[in-house]
Amino acid sequence: MQPDYKVINASAGSGKTYALVQNLLAICLKYPSQADKIRNILALTFTNKAANEMKHRIIDWLKKFSLETYESNNDLINIEIKLKNEGFTIPLKELHERSKKMLDYVLHHYSTLNISTIDKFNSKLVRSFAQELGLAQNFNLEINAEPFLIEAVDKMLEDIGEENKISEAFMDFVNYTLDNNDRIDLNKTLYNSAKEYVQDKHYFQLNENKNFDWDVYEHTKKNLRKSIKELREDSLKIADQAMTLLQEKDLNVGDFADGKNGIGGFFEKFIDKKIPLLYETIEQELAREEKIRKGASSKSKNREAEILEILDFLLDHRKKIIENHVEAEKKEKILNALLPLKVNKDIQDKLAEIEQENDLVLLSKFNVMIHENLRKEPTAFIYEKIGTKFSHYFFDEFQDTSLLQWQNFLPLRDHAISQEHMSFTLVGDPKQSIYRFRGGDSQLMLDIINHKENAPVKAKVENLENNYRSAKNIVDFNNKLYDYMSQFTETEHQEIFGKGSHQKAKSDMEGRVRINLIENATKKSQYYESTSEKMRDDIETCLAQGFRFSDITILCRGNFDIFTFSQLLGNQKVNYKGDDVYIKTISESGLTLNLSLTLLALTEFLKWEENPKNLQFAVKMLYYLKVLGRIEMDDFSNEIMEILALKTKSKMEVSIFEKYGLQLQSKDLLQLNLYNFIEHFLQEFSVKDKETDFLFNYLEMLFAYSQNAGSTLKEFLKYWAEEANSKTIQASENVDAVQIMTIHKSKGLEFPVVLLPMKNAAGSKKSSYWFETSSEELLSSVNVHFFDTTLEIYDPEIATFNYENSYQEKIDDFCLQYVATTRAAEQLFFYIEQPNKTTNHLEIYDFLASKIPRNEAGELQLSFDLYRVSAENLNKQTAQKSTEFTTKAIHLTMDKDKYPDAIKIATPTKSYQNRVEKVRMGIFTHEILARINTAKDVEKVLESYVLEGIITHEENTEIKDRIFNIIHNENYATYFKENQTVINEKDLMISENGTSSIYRPDRLIETENGMIIIDFKTGDPQKKHQLQLDEYQSVLEKLGKKVIQSQIIYV
C-alpha cells in the first residue's frame, strides 16, 4: 500500500483553489456508485469566505460537468487526465454521468459538505464531547474574548486588599517601578498581557510554567532583586578599586592610550553614569582592546612600563564590570516579566469562573481543550462522536496553522496515511505566512516540504509552478526580486524564495512595473505628501488607459498609512472621463468607530449618565453634536455657559431639550437591557443619511457585547475605551473608488492595478518572545522584548535570542512584501523611499539600484518603467467584472416612538411599534417596495413578514393591494419589469474635499442608456422630497453614472 500523503506548494496566483477542487472531485468521481463519497471528505480553511468559495466552485463545476456540453469542458477533461495519470482510465461520458449523480446528492444533502473553517470544525468537535469535557450541553460559543478579559482583570484587581499575597505583590511591583523612575498603567498592562497570553500560541510555554505560584513568584522575585543589587554594587566596587590603583600609582586618565576614551576613562565614566560603554560589533570591541593595549598615551610614554604592568589587571576589571552589567540587564528583563506571567494564571482562573457562570466557552480555548482532553482519544471514537468517518482530508492555508492546531490533527493524519483508500493533503505557501503574530507557524510546512518532519512517511511534494493571475512582466519581476532576496535568508528559506518560487506566466498580457523613488526627507510627513503626488499622476494615467477608480488598490502596512493617504488623495483632482474630479477613495481598515461624531457624542453622553457630576462630558457631547449638524449653536461658548450654570443634570437635560430638541431624559424609557438603552439614544443622536455605516457596525458590536449576561454601562464604557473604539468598520461596496487596504487584508485577492508605498525604516521591534531562564528554579521561560543590541557580543544567550527572533521578523517582512507584490494582474507601481545617508532598510532598493536609469545629465531618474511596453499594451486588458446587486433593504429607523406604550421584540436594529394605522400601513408598504424587484417577489416578502409576526393576515391583504396598485399603475409599471438590474437601498459613499458622505436612494434601475432613480415617500408631497431626489442625481453623476430619469412614488 502506497500512503497518500501530499503537500501542495502553491505560490501566489498559481490556482490553489482550482487544485483543491480538482483533487477533491477526482476522489469523488474515481469510482462508480459513490455519489455520496463527498460526505467522507473534510476540507478545512481559515476563513468562511474561502470555505464558501470552495463550495460554490464544487457545485458550479458539477453543474457544468452535468450539461450536454461536457465533452468540451476543460475542467472535466483535466480530471480525466489526472485520474489516468493515477492509473484510472475513465471515459469522459462516464465522468459526466457520475457528476450528475453527485450533483443530485450534493443539492439534496448540502449540509453533508464538510468544508468549513478550522474553528468551526473544532466547535463541532468540542460540542460532540461536551459531556466528557464537563461543559453544559448547550454552552454558548464566544468568539470575542476582549469583554470577558476586561471583566477578569477587574475581578482580579478587586482582590487587592482582600488577598494579602496579591495585594503585597501589586504594591511591591508599583513601588519598584516608581523607584526605578518608571510609570505604569496597571490595568492596561495587565489587560494587554492577558490579551496576549489567551492566544494558544503561548500554550506550551505557559504549561511549562504551571507550577509558578505566588510562593515561587516571591522567592524568584527576591532572588532576582538581590542578584541585580549585588551585581551593580560589585561593579561599582571593582571600578573604585581600579581608580584607587591609579591614584596609588599616581596615574591619571590622560596617561593611558586614547585618553578619556581609554581604559582609565572607562572606569571614570562608569562611576559617573553607572553604565559601562559597550559596542555593537565584535570588531569594534576588539579595536577598543587593541587601542587599550597600546599602553601609554603619547605624552606619557615615559611611564609605559608602569602602565603595562597593571594593564591586564585593569582589562580583567573592565571585563568583569561588563559581564556584571549584562547579567544584571538579563535578570532585570526577567524580573519585569514576572508579575504579568504570574498574574496571567490568576486572570485565567477568573476568566474560567466567568465562563462557568455564563455557560460559555471562548473560541480561543478550543485548541487547548482538544489538546489536553481529546488528542489521545482513539480515532474511531472521535469519528463515532462527531457522526462522520472521514477518509480524505484537505488542509488549506497550512502555512498559517499553529503548532497546537497541527498537534491536534496529527492523530487523524497518522490514521489517514496508514490506511488504504484514505488521503491527507496539505495546501499552502510558506512565502505567504503573514499571521505569525496570531500563532501561524510556517516552519511546520517548511519541515514537511524539506522532509524534516517527524512522521511515519514523508509527504510527496507537488509544486504549482504556473501563475494565472499576473502579467508576464510582473511575474518576471517577482521571480528575479525574490531570487535576489533569497541570498539574505538561511538555507531552508533560500529554495522557497529562490529557484523554488519561480513561476511561469500563463497570462498573455505584458504588464507594467513602474518604480517611483521618493526622497528620504527628515520630515516624516514629506514622504506621504511626495508619494501622494506621484500616486495622483499614476492614477490619472491609469484612468486615461481605460481603468476605473475601482480597478486601483493601494496596499499599506498599517492603518496610519491608510488614513494619511486617504486624506491626502481625497484633496487631489484627476481627469476622469473628461471631467476634473476629486480622487474618490474607500477603505475598511482606515475607518474606525472612533472617527464617527455621532458615536463620540453618544459616548460622552453615556459617560455623563454614569458620572452625572462631571460636566465636561456634557460639554464634549454638545460640541460633537454641533459639528455633526444634529444641533445648531450660534455662540457655542455662551450657550454652554448658560447650560452649565444650571448645575444639575436634570435641569440641564430640560434646557437642552427646550433649546435643541434633544431628549436626554431616560426616566420614562422602558429599559429592557443595555442594548435597548444605548440604541434608544443612538437614534436620538443620529442624523439621517450621516455615518450610517458607522452606526450599523456599532450596533452590531453593541449587540454582541450585550449578550454577556449582566453587562453594565460602566463595563461597556471600559470595553469601548480599551478595545471597541478602534474596531474597523465594513465600508460600503459597489462604489467606483480607489480601494485602500492593509496588505494583510489583501491576502487571497487580486486587483488590476496595485500601488505599493514602501517607507525605508527599521522594524519596530515591539514584539515579545519567550526567553529561557536557565538560571531560575521553577521558572522555565518569560515573555520579553528584544535585548539591547549592545549586549549581544558579550553574551551568546542574548545574541542567539535576538538573532533568531530578528531573523523571524525579517522573514515576516519578506512574506508580507511577497503578498503585496503578487496581487497585481496588469500594473504594479512602487513608491520606494530612498535610503538615508547611512542606512538602507529595503532589500528591494538594493535590487533596483543597478537598474535605475540616468538622464542626459547623468542624474538618477526617479520615476521609470522596468520593462518597455507599448502604449497600446498599457491599456486595460481584463474584462470588466459585472457587479451583481441583490435586494437587501437595511435602514436605521429615525422616526420610531421615543416612549412606546408596548414593546414588540424584534431583531437588534429594528422594532415595529403600534402607530396610527394609516402611517403604519404606509411605512410597511414603503419597506416592502424597497425589498422587491418585480411583482413575483411580493408574495414571498409579505409571507416572511407574516411568519415573523410583524404584520397580521388582514394587514397582509391590505398592503398587498396597495403594492399591486402601484406596480400595475401605467405610470410606474415599467419600473417593476423583469430582467432589470435593480439596486435597492444601497449606500453610496463619496469622498470629496477630504469629507465622506453617504447617500441611500430607495431604488436604482441600471439600464443600457443610464440610471433611473426611484424614491418612495409616505404622506403628502413636499418640496424637500424633490430636492433630495436632485441630490441623489448629483451624487450618481459625480460617480460617473448617467441619470436618464428620476421619479417620486407616493405610497
Description of the structure:
With 1051 residues, this protein is of the alpha/beta class. Helices cover 48% and strands 12% of the residues. The strands form 8 sheets. A 7-stranded mixed β-sheet has the order 15-16-12-17-20-11-21. Strands 3-2-6-7-1-8 form a 6-stranded parallel β-sheet, sandwiched between helices. About 3% of the residues have low confidence.
Summarize the structure in short.
This protein is 48% helix and 12% strand. It is of the alpha/beta class. Strands 15-16-12-17-20-11-21 form a seven-stranded mixed beta sheet. The chain has a six-stranded parallel beta sheet with strand order 3-2-6-7-1-8, with helices on both faces.
